[in-house]
Design brief:
It contains eight helices and ten strands. The longest helix has 9 residues. The chain is an alpha+beta fold.
């Protein structure tokens, strides 16, 4: 008998972040949206690569620097080709680079809508004493952990906090509950007490595969 039933939640944001910056046409700070396309420029043996953005209000373009004056010989051929052919996976990865976006914007807007795929790593649900949720972020996300848990477990945030304070739900700290969900984070639920706190285990497990 395994004491812990592990369920992995793979979380994917539905929309890339939108950096806010000054738009010359709008004469104001506006959100910019990734086009999913790159612009490249070769100067002798050096290369510039930008990810093209468009103003959400007027459609004016802005090129976010990815590579500047970088030796072409130092870029792996497959990576260079991914830029030249506007590879969607590569574009998405750079569009979710929050540290890069922060250097080129005054604010970053991020949609909190996500998809959550749940995978059970064992099948002995009836024997388990604890349910452990492992968070796996496919892309950076600023969705608060309490909002994520409340939505997926189908309880209110206040009920979730009470369950945490009663020891039914455990994680690193109370502060982590109100912080963005982190890749690799673990949340444990005491199954013997869960129902008393409004946590519908049957509904939760039916969503997992």
């Amino acid at each position: 008998m395994s004491e812990i039933l592990l369920v992995t939640w793979r979380i994917t944001p539905l929309q890339p972040p939108r950096p806010r910056r000054h738009c010359g046409s709008c004469k104001a700070t506006t959100p910019f949206i990734s086009s999913g396309r790159f612009r490249t420029n070769a100067q002798k043996k050096r290369l510039d690569i930008w990810l093209i953005y468009r103003c959400a209000v007027c459609d004016e373009t802005w090129n976010m620097p990815i590579v500047e004056r970088f030796p072409v010989a130092h870029i792996p051929p497959d990576q260079l080709q991914s830029f030249l052919r506007n590879d969607p996976v590569t574009a998405t990865r750079h569009a979710f680079d929050l540290s890069l976006l922060a250097r080129h914007s005054v604010q970053i807007d991020q949609d909190m809508a996500v998809t959550v795929e749940k995978h059970i790593d064992a099948s002995n649900f009836a024997d388990a004493a604890y349910l452990e949720i492992a968070i796996a972020l496919n892309l950076p996300c600023r969705l608060r952990l309490d909002a994520l848990l409340a939505r997926e477990i189908d309880v209110t945030r206040s009920a979730l906090l009470r369950a945490y304070e009663a020891g039914v739900v455990t994680l690193d700290s109370r502060k982590a509950m109100r912080a963005p969900a982190q890749d690799g984070q673990r949340i444990r639920i005491d199954l013997s007490k869960a129902r008393r706190w409004g946590i519908d285990l049957d509904k939760l497990m039916k969503q997992a595969t």
